[in-house]
Amino acid sequence: MALSLTRAPDLARRRVERTLDETGLLCVTLLEGLRRTWDLRQWWGEFIEQCWFLARVTAVPVMLIAVPLGATISLQVGDIARQLGAASGTGALLVAAMIQQVAPLAAALLVSGVGGSAMTSDMGARNIRDELAAMEVMGINPIHRLVTPRLWAASTVSALLCSVVILAGVLGGFYFNVIQQGVSPGAFFDGATTLLQFSDLVVTLFKAWVFGFVAAAVACYMGMNCDYGPVGVGRAVNRAVVVTSIVVFAINYVVEMVYQVLVPRKF
Q1: pTM recorded for the entire structure
Q2: Judging by beta carbons within 10 Å of its beta carbon (0-12, 13-18, 19+), is residue 9 exposed, middle or buried?
Q3: Which residues contact 43 (CB under 8 A, 6 or more apart)?
Q4: Are 76 and 89 in contact (CB under 8 A)?
Q5: How far is CA 131 from CA 26, 125, 126, 147, 176, in A?
Q6: Residue pLDDT, tens place only, 186-233
Q7: Which 8-state DSSP code applies to residue 191?
Q8: What is the Cα–Cα distance from 189 to 88, expressed in whole angstroms?
């Protein structure tokens, strides 16, 4: 018991050092992937293929999530607003919530959970088959050839999915708030203009764009550094999804805090 207590600080220190090392390597992977962005001929074809793949596997799930999510927010907020005598403000609160917070996070988590897991599996399979080492032997940087197009594809699709989430969520909330709860369509949409400004949409798309980069970088890094064997690939997929979720929520908090300081809210 005494021995385990004396070893606890060493174990904690080693875990912190390992976390910092992995964080640094992840940042190196991201920056190295962006370094050769100008060389479009090397990664344009892979970029188109990855964009199509990500859009195909995430478009339907994101709409299936956004519609009931918007409806749930509308029902809950509408019930409280009706008790306070402000049912017409439900649309404003719903649209503001979807644009400012829900849409970029939902798009990032879908890209990470569906597309990112596929990226991790693909890179992990290439790693255990020694394809990455073979590319390095042939003088081809695997990060420039494989990671760069995935970074830009994930960021592009994430920004597009953010728009889909907003549209689907607002439509779901419109149906339940206007048709089910009897709020007029004019009041539903008119209230949104009192709470939102154009910079809110710009920041939302920017956050979704950054979240796509983060999801792809984490997925590719975990796959390229996974343990050999199917178990190692499975653990890398699990770690990629978990780490991406933590980083995305942390970045969202920082960006939102800076935005609220720099841009005053519209009242």
Answers
A1: 0.84
A2: exposed
A3: 36, 144, 145, 148, 149, 152
A4: no
A5: 20, 9, 5, 14, 52
A6: 766 766 666 777 888 888 899 999 999 999 999 999 988 888 877 888
A7: T
A8: 9
